[in-house]
Specification:
With 241 residues, the chain is an alpha/beta fold. It has 7 helices and 7 strands; from the N terminus they run βαβαββαβαβαααβ. It has a single domain (10-231), classed as 3-Layer(aba) Sandwich (Rossmann fold), CATH 3.40.50. It has a 7-stranded parallel sheet, sandwiched between helices.
Length: 241
């Protein structure tokens, strides 16, 4: 048996329209999973790439996934949906705080809860892979709610692993470094900031969404059966520097 095969598994990926989410969906499908690509708009391009399905999940309502696991058994949940707002801390608005925390943390927890309840009801296990961040470990600048939410993702990942490991659900996270996505476009467009970032990355390049996706496949696979509560840094060596 190939310990990295996901044949016969169904995976739901949130925020799967583009970027890391789309790359994760494609890699899971390549490993054999049937993929449900979820987004606030239809993930038609992702579904075409994976041969899977698409589902609307708009986490403007953090409880949007409350019924997402009632129609079909899902074996793998990837909590990738996220948002970011940038402003100096003294100017940061309550609305931007609430929106980011709602999507990045509240929705992640209650989507995981719905997944686990469905798995327990059918006496099955499963895998949850959360997308954390380097800012699960660092402070960053001008992204206070994002930093708070990603610190929370790391904590929730560990707590759920403590509670659910013995019940057959592996809960882990991947912490991407600086990846070429829409979220990092403002940084890459600033020559000084981009150079400062690249100068610190031992690998000497921005990450690609596929770099993150393959780490997710590992954590979703039988090869990671004894991995619980891990936060796997995929950052080109940033945190090692």
């Amino acid at each position: 048996m190939n310990p990295f095969s996901l044949e016969g598994r169904t995976a739901l990926v949130t925020g799967a329209n583009a970027g890391i989410g789309q790359a994760v969906a494609v890699s899971l499908a390549r490993a054999g999973a049937h993929v449900v690509a979820a987004g606030r708009t239809p993930c038609d391009e992702t579904a075409a790439l994976t041969g899977g399905e698409t589902m609307i999940l708009d986490f403007a309502d953090p409880m949007a996934a409350r019924d997402a696991f009632s129609a079909r058994p899902v074996d793998i949940l990837v909590n990738n949906a996220g948002t970011i707002r940038r402003a100096d801390a003294e100017e940061f608005s309550e609305a931007d705080w609430d929106e980011v925390m709602g999507v990045n943390l509240k929705a992640l927890f209650f989507t995981s809860q719905a997944f686990a309840k469905a798995a327990f009801a059918r006496k099955a296990g499963g895998r949850i892979v959360n997308i954390a961040s380097l800012l699960s470990f660092q402070g960053g600048v001008r992204v206070v709610s994002y930093t708070a939410s990603k610190h929370g993702v790391a904590g929730v990942t560990r707590l759920l692993a403590n509670e659910w490991a013995a019940r057959g659900i592996n809960v882990n996270a991947v912490a991407p470094g600086y990846v070429e996505t829409a979220n990092t476009a403002p940084l890459r467009a600033d020559p000084e900031r981009s150079k400062a970032i690249l100068d610190r990355i031992p690998a000497g390049r921005w990450g690609a969404p596929s770099d993150i996706a393959e780490a997710v496949v590992f954590l979703a696979s039988p090869a990671a059966a004894y991995v619980h509560g891990a936060i796997l840094n995929v950052d080109g060596g940033w945190l090692a520097r």
